[in-house]
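User: I've been going back and forth on whether these two constructs are worth ordering. Before I decide, could you fold them both?

Assistant: Sure. I'll take them in the order you sent them. The first construct and its structure tokens:
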Amino acid sequence: MSTIDTKPRTTAAATAAHSVAVGTPIADIARFLQANLGQRLTARMAGINDAKQVGRWAAGTSRPRPEAEARLIDAIQIFHLIQAAESVYTARAWMIGMNPQLEDMAPALCIADDRAREVMVAARAYVEATDSTQLPSSSAGS
């Protein structure tokens, strides 16, 4: 039985997610996260108490501090990686649900706790597992 290496697809999805994260203005990132994860959770991930501040970022009337901006960029990159493998709905559920690779914490809360790298590792593992379960049952060209 031959196996198909899913890492190239995962790497391509991760590269595309990175491009979105670094190429998107912070106001658009805040707006996207606010729309998909909610204003309060976006504020929590950014490490701020005032959820209304997220709306100001999304409107472009103010900018987050550098550490909050970094967390938002991490969050959108991870969200887009999961979305590329599944759907926006699955990405949302993945971000807010308990994750066994993160000690049963929600990935969004781990981002808030400066654990974005661990969350990315868990996201890549999820995408690789998703890729391997969606492969055709017959192998081509062996």
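The second construct, handled the same way:
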Amino acid sequence: MPHCEQVRHAISAKKHCLESMNELDEFLGSKMNSNSWYDEGFSFAQEMLESFNNADWEQLKMETPAKSLEWKSRLAYCVPIKSDLYELEIMLSFANCGDKELFGIVVDALRSFEITETNKELISQSNFIKQA
């Protein structure tokens, strides 16, 4: 691929990443009552996450620490558990935030998570086991 094509592709990928993150950020931060969230909101957010590529997950991982507790809870509730390292890292970071409700959501979500050797190492390095 010629250099100009590579640059164009990189710019396009970054733009897609920012658009994906902005759309998810707006949706998770929107004012929505609990019934709307649990009835249909979480599935819409889950669909957004399922279309994320690695760059989107990296961006999400970088931005989540600064988000509100409600935003994090919504994300934890709808993360599609595919036994992916990005998902696990985000969920473990939420488990370490000190909020019992968010910790409970994380525990529920991780019950269906496939534990691989890499995942075991990541879990053992976190404070998750100490809190459980």
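Notes on the second construct follow. Residues 32 and 118 are 37 Å apart (CA to CA). The helical segments are 3-29, 34-50, 54-63, 69-78, 85-95, 100-110, 117-125, 128-131.
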